[in-house]
Amino acid sequence: MAYSQTKVELENINEKLEKVYTTDQLTRRELNEAQKTYGYGSKEFNERLNAMNVQDSINRGIALNILDRFGWLDKPLLSDKASKAFFYTIQHADLETQIKYKHFMGEAFRSGQISNHEYAIFQDRLNVRLGKNQLYWQPDCLRQPWEFLPVPG
């Protein structure tokens, strides 16, 4: 944790991270609406999916730069929305990024920055991407039809 930031720096960081959170969630809502309206794999769905991937890349550049410089700042220093930007940026990142920042997710879970449910979702997604079994049995809601991924037998 870095506490040497000035109030202005923290307000700027908070504002940037809140924007990351907002754009992350907005692009996913738009993707879900395209799926409901036009169908999974439709032209409109794929356009929204591409836009989401571009936005995720922009968000990674912003949020991970802050995370690398200052660490996962405590909620008293950041709004809840800004703190969630770190979670969603890592959760929606490529496998290499998820592996690199896994320790931040563990620390955030242990310190109460993310919930049990959020940690379970992250851990299951990471395990499946690594070819391992899920620990918490979270469905992958972007797959159509919904499918449950591997769990221990």
Give structural attributes:
153 residues, mainly alpha, 66% helix
Can you offer a commentary on this structure?
This protein is mainly α and 153 residues long. Helix content is 66%, strand content 0%. About 4% of the residues have low confidence.
What's the gist of this structure?
This protein has helices spanning about 5-40, 45-70, 80-90, 95-100, 100-110, 115-130. The chain is an all-alpha fold and about 150 residues long.
Structural class: mainly alpha
Shape: globular
* Number of self-contained structural domains: 1
Radius of gyration: 16 Å
By DSSP (H or I, 4+ residues per run), the number of helices equals: 6
The largest pleated sheet is described as: none
CA distance, first residue to last residue: 40 Å
What topology does this entry show?
Layout: H1 7-38, H2 43-70, H3 80-91, H4 95-100, H5 102-110, H6 116-129
